[in-house]
Amino acid sequence: MIQAGIVGGTGYTGVELLRILVLHPQVDIKVVTSRSDAGKRVDEVYPNLSGLCDAVFTEPDIDLLGACDVVFFATPNGTAMQSARALLERGVKVIDLSADFRIQDVAEWSRWYGMEHACPDLISEAVYGLPEINRTAIQSAQLIACPGCYPTAVQLGFLPLIENGLVDNAHLIADVKSGVSGAGRKAQLTSLMSESGESFKAYAVNGHRHLPEITQGLNQMGNGSIKLTFVPHLTPMIRGIHATLYAQLDDLSVDLQTIYQQRYERESFVNVLAAGSHPDTRNVKGGNRCQIAIHRPQNENTVVVLSVIDNLVKGASGQAVQNMNLMFGLNESMGLETVALYP
Amino acid sequence: MIQAGIVGGTGYTGVELLRILVLHPQVDIKVVTSRSDAGKRVDEVYPNLSGLCDAVFTEPDIDLLGACDVVFFATPNGTAMQSARALLERGVKVIDLSADFRIQDVAEWSRWYGMEHACPDLISEAVYGLPEINRTAIQSAQLIACPGCYPTAVQLGFLPLIENGLVDNAHLIADVKSGVSGAGRKAQLTSLMSESGESFKAYAVNGHRHLPEITQGLNQMGNGSIKLTFVPHLTPMIRGIHATLYAQLDDLSVDLQTIYQQRYERESFVNVLAAGSHPDTRNVKGGNRCQIAIHRPQNENTVVVLSVIDNLVKGASGQAVQNMNLMFGLNESMGLETVALYP
Amino acid sequence: MIQAGIVGGTGYTGVELLRILVLHPQVDIKVVTSRSDAGKRVDEVYPNLSGLCDAVFTEPDIDLLGACDVVFFATPNGTAMQSARALLERGVKVIDLSADFRIQDVAEWSRWYGMEHACPDLISEAVYGLPEINRTAIQSAQLIACPGCYPTAVQLGFLPLIENGLVDNAHLIADVKSGVSGAGRKAQLTSLMSESGESFKAYAVNGHRHLPEITQGLNQMGNGSIKLTFVPHLTPMIRGIHATLYAQLDDLSVDLQTIYQQRYERESFVNVLAAGSHPDTRNVKGGNRCQIAIHRPQNENTVVVLSVIDNLVKGASGQAVQNMNLMFGLNESMGLETVALYP
Amino acid sequence: MIQAGIVGGTGYTGVELLRILVLHPQVDIKVVTSRSDAGKRVDEVYPNLSGLCDAVFTEPDIDLLGACDVVFFATPNGTAMQSARALLERGVKVIDLSADFRIQDVAEWSRWYGMEHACPDLISEAVYGLPEINRTAIQSAQLIACPGCYPTAVQLGFLPLIENGLVDNAHLIADVKSGVSGAGRKAQLTSLMSESGESFKAYAVNGHRHLPEITQGLNQMGNGSIKLTFVPHLTPMIRGIHATLYAQLDDLSVDLQTIYQQRYERESFVNVLAAGSHPDTRNVKGGNRCQIAIHRPQNENTVVVLSVIDNLVKGASGQAVQNMNLMFGLNESMGLETVALYP
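Output (structure tokens, whole complex):
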């Protein structure tokens, strides 16, 4: 059995890791840390786990964590980088769900995240944990930078277009809509139901931290020269991301449906829907899937790709477990074979 | 492997059965019928099952269904009673999620459901499928009448009080709130999001079909003489039932918390929460649990019991599978060990 | 024109006062205070007022407020009592939307609100601002204690029963459901959409601050001896309160529908719905109405009264303006003739 | 007083017309037709109007309608065109909220709406009722084609860019999100709360009926040659439209903020928000406003315009009344000075 530790078990990605891992047949949850809830039973704080989890929150302790086989960081940005080296030196595999190791250009990282990086030399060792692109590297990685939620939906949506050089890389648009759980479990006015319920708005149009991550990823897929306009929106639901992607096609004769189906036919967690479909975020709610549909309205050269995920599963904790499965040589789907909750 | 059939696979309890059964380790889904969608792949109609279910909807056919080990009826009232005898005669176990076999008094049934019963002689053979009360009878049953969603939440909440004769049976009140999925997958004005979203109302205050079912159940638990005021409400969420139950305690010295804990300590799917708790429907969303808390405000003689379930799981399809597990000698929790989706 | 001041203009009841008063034909909004937003234009903080309000938030200043004809306190409990005397001494009428002057028994008030009262002698001067009961006293009042949201819905629902001595006062139950805006515009975890959306729960079952206020009100209506079990719930919508009230009728021959209709026939803001109706909170959303229906299920002696209001209008700011209209001899409905927003 | 008739008073745009007109100081509602509810009091069907409207639904009758000064059609497409000529011949002004007179090219109209037009000669007489563009023509019009909801939000957002020839007309994108009330008050599965709540999806990506209307409008604003990719989405809220518009700017030196402010400075119902703002649909809920913000992310040449309206007010019934006010020489804002409901 894999001995697993979770640092920061009281946020939404932390409790989602718990939801998945308590039923994972090859994992024992050995440590769950939380400064605010240390000493409390996990299922007292999260009654959805009642009867399924005997763990007790503890203060973070490098020795306890160092005795694990793998440690997940479900922490705010800037935390994982403080402890990653010590854990790696003890032979612990580290899977970071925050942004600490996602951006290879450390100056760019500092500009967007507003802090100095604590271990810039480790960044190049980190593998970007998007299995559909980096599966082989993930299998032998010691340190995984789990992709952000928006970047997962956007990159999987654009991937076949960019890989195959089919579109004008300098005019990409990602109009993306997220449920409010993406803002995390933080007491802030804008996340109140009275503020975000029954309303819709864009935010951070002039620059969101996921922009450099997406641009880096798209540049690595193809011949570079990516220019992306990325507009995130807040939608009045709890879970789900819907990316609507726009690109200008160079050659109108390509069969996009076939290209997408072939690219993803061996991927367990990416479904290319039938031509003419419109994916609905509810169909991936609670599951680790990405569902994609491709359209070319009025047969013009603008391609519209629709890509949906659950931001907390494929966009965070489910993908983290998918990475863990690969790192430990397990079946990639183990513990992730859940069905989305409908309705 | 158990060969299972589902009649009426296109309503919410049908697709919820599919969600549970596709991952059940001892079940093969052999037949899924739907008059409206016959010929279509199940995962075309329900993309949340994409890649997890190869079944195709078929027209109902007694021979196909008769070759199953168990048939679930996830149909409107009045359907199961038409086919139950033929299936039972072929040795098929029948689990009816509708109301056809729930009421022992056939005249009473006809009065509330507005039709003649097609096989009144079978009613007495049917076992009321509430495992926390009828476990032994369920294990040897051929025909199960699965409890309604409201009756499950209300009966489990009142059970320890009535069984132990602790309250005035003639003055019981059940103020119950349901999510809108309880109204089913039917095109009707009152279920539109524009009509039921962001609003709250009571309905059927002068008489709801679940009243005789609850009253019958409560009468069987204790010494009879039940008089219940039952007020159902529609709450603007999709899944979940919250029952707030009121009863007049005879003896103020009893330790209700202990009585409840002892009654349910061996039940996998009933959690008695710590004293002072308030169960939240989100904590059972997608799971087969009932969570209960007991209060006695101002130490007066009015007991307030709070009881929550997911109406589609413990209130319908999950409980149906729990019954199936018992009927086939499996572990009662098999296929039902899921964690509620939070947030 | 009435010169009006608003203290605490950045909470939900404050902005709701602004929404109503900017269009009131007899009111000039002279002062709006907010410590946190002082110096900002009101319509910058609340873009729904864009183009309709030129006011700028200021620091609270007793001289500026003292120059008004009326001052509304839309502040947390404990604030209005600090300034009320100074304003009253300058001849300013004071309308307090908080709880500072609602409870006549000052020791009881301190027990529930956890502080010493700053001006206990003023409490007896305050008039409880429920116009349907206290209209005459309100007309000549200088200091109004506006009722709480739950107390408004519950008292208007029980009023005809208690006034006429029709029920057993010792066994009253109020099962009440509120939208989340009732928790105010405060950054707290439990009010996040991810926490309170798509879920339903009871809270404060062992004692809510509105209990003594309701009990006091009901005692004053009839012959006293009220015992009330009050269970508040949080429902996943923004605005609206639905009270479901239970009482034991002494005499089954009374015509409750007629009694209610006669009691409220001259009230502009209380609608008694036709027999058999179920009021829906959406039908009063944004309006100052209370809609009520009366039921007697199975013709038994349990009366069920359904009473709905918008917690921010009839439950707070609308009722405050209704009081102001009465205090200044205006038409009671002035500025309040809005239609609820449906859907 | 203007004598007004409403044909089709039982849909959402019909009841919204009633909500506005019952309080309009210059309007008497003389006739409200509804085949399904004929004979019922309007406030029985719509309890939000209780006590505010004495009208009774009647069968449509050309003589009754012909005695009005103005008749609004809040009907499905294809109805207004059957009666418009008869009413116009009697001197009645007609304001059609449906699509019957919006498209000047009758063949194009038939292709998208799937029927023959009943009075193609009247189309050219109809004035497209977007006051911010056609105010003068509206003032003298007898027949108004009220714009659709999506077209209102999109055209007002693009208008200053196209009018001034600032962008590449051949590469426009409108990614638009609508609340579910846009689908109308129709019993259909996809509009159930269980289907559309807590989920987000695009629809009709390959062609929505509002595309030709928008394209026609944008072509008339500038030098033609418009190519628009229009992707509508369904968002889990009841009211509101948020248009996110993308265009390629020709000249990076223009001051877009000033251009927008100047274009709309005399418009009562269009607010250009401060630079850097993100309009929120809640801030226009129930009001007749359009709020707009302009961004140019990373100072690149892609302009992003955010434009929000309430689909039932500025996107339908409020705009219809704005047109009526213009046609009758009233203050354009009369009856429309409401404040959006927040929260």
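The interface with chain A takes residues 12, 15, 19, 22-23, 44, 46-52, 181, 185, 198, 238-239, 268, 271, 273-274, 279-280, 282-287, 289, 291, 337-343 of chain B (CB under 8 Å).
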